[in-house]
Amino acid sequence: MSGAGPDGESPWWLKYGARGVGTAGGLIAMGLGFLNCLTLSAYCLGAGIYQLLAGFVVVSAEAPCCCMFIDFVQLYSKFVEDRPPWQKAALYCGLAIPGICLCPNLSIFFGSGFIFLTGVLYGMMALGKKGSRNDMIAAAQSTVPGGNATMKSTLVNMEAPLSTS
Hints:
Layout: H1 12-36, H2 42-62, H3 73-81, H4 85-102, H5 106-127, H6 133-142
Helix pairs in contact: 1-2, 1-5, 2-4, 2-5, 4-5
């Protein structure tokens, strides 16, 4: 058994790990966002409300069973589940940044950090599996300048430079 999931792109433990980090991180972000709403600063109040909403977006996408009594969550979760991993990574990393910019304190940093970590895990899934050792050695030997193998250039396809005469 190779350890790859049903689609063969990423290991099962990475998929479930990203879902687990997303669920736990979203719940932590909502809790810390609520605690941040108790401050007297207007920016930190806004950041706390934003973090509550960002945590809800992540939890409703990663663990729709936590929000099963809200009608649209099942449709939203299915929509997000059908997206490729790079889009989920962009969504979660993009959700994490504004809260930190509004109020850079410890609770916002940790709450948004968990959401960002979920995005990083989905980004790792989007990169895919690393090549085998033999494939990597063969690729490195074929592109070594001055080596025995010919140098490959996919950027210009070994075209001659334009002459000025």
